[in-house]
Every structure is written in structure tokens, then in C-alpha cells.
Sequence to fold (213 residues):
Amino acid sequence: MIVAIEQAFERGLVTLPWMDAGTQARAQAKARGLSNMVGYPDRWRDYSQVKVERADYFGAVVAASRAELAREMQKADRPVDRQEWLMPVSVLNAYTNPLTLEMAFPAAILQPPLFSIELPMAVNFGAIGSIMGHELTHHFDDEGSTFDETGALAAWWTPAARAGFDAAASCVVSQYDAYEVLPGLRVRGKQTLGENIADAGGLNTRTRPMCDG
Ligand SMILES: [Zn+2]
Fold:
């Protein structure tokens, strides 16, 4: 499903009138280089050194904190572990890591009503598929797009393509600025822009702006 969505995204890229061929080629390279983590990690985190006593809550918190600190400290001076999951598999969520060009879909989110092997694929694409598209789009939203195909923070868009992106994004900002959450309280579209671009992109699996003109 993710591969199909990535391919649809790539087909959309080449239809963007404001994106020049050079930027398109790099965006395609970036989309093709993304790695997907699905379900659960190949290697489970080892908690065998964490001693937990049912009658000692404070001691359990300290032991867990110690183990986590030691795990983090061990990363120093080592290459990035690209197999590491930043979210437990029991969390009903998904994430994108712009630095490592990854998307992760923990087991907890791959359940009904979002996904089931029993459901017609059209239903799955309409449910978990839109979330896959959402995470994919994050790699190209107002923040994700500032990371290039190696995960480095870099100005890899031509100024003209960036101006086209900003013009399209301003439509999304205006759309969300108009939403009144409570009487007199509106969404600040600029602040929620990345999520809104990801939502629109995820449903569209094309990268067309939401409004014309
Ligand atoms: Zn998001």
C-alpha cells in the first residue's frame, strides 16, 4: 500500500506547474529514498536490566530512567541506528523522521477501522492509506521540505519552486485561518500548516494546492 501511495505521490509531483524539473527530480529521489517501518522493529529493545518491584513504584521509575539514560548515552559516537523505532508498537499513531527519511506505522494503528486484511483494499486505502499519505506528505511540507534527499537541512529547492510552494501553502493558511473553533477563537493557519498540508496531501495523494488562483 505504501509503495502504491509513494508512486501516486510521484505522479502528482510531475504535474505541479510551479515546480521546475530539477526540483522535481530531487523530490522524486527523496520520495524513492524513504524507508518504511511497518508493524514492529526487527530487533526488540532489551529491558532485561530494568528491575521492577511491584511494591516499589519510586524504585521502578528510577530504574526505568537509569536504563533509558544509559541507552541514550550508548548512542554517543556511534553511527545512527536506522532500525530504531521512536514510538512503541502499542501506540496508535504514526510518525515521520525527516532526519533519517523514515516513516513508521506501529502495529497498534494497523487495526480496524483503519486497516484490516479482511477489508476490501479500497477501504484500507481510504483509511490507513490516507494516514500513509499524510506521513509521506510531511517529508514535503513547510518543515519537511527543508530536508534534502539525504536528510540534511539544505536549500535544495530553486527559489522559483519555493515561491510556488509558498503561494500554494498560503491558500492552506487562509483556509485554516477561517475556521472558528469556538466563538471568536480561530485556528492560526500558519502554525498548523504542516499538519494541514499533510492531511490534504494524504487524502489527495497528489500535491495540488487546495485552491486555485
Ligand atoms: Zn502529521
Q: What stands out?
A: Strands lie at 35-39, 95-97, 102-106, 180-182, 185-186. The pocket of zinc ion is lined by residues 134, 138, 195, 198 (CB under 6 Å). The two ends are 33 Å apart (CA to CA).
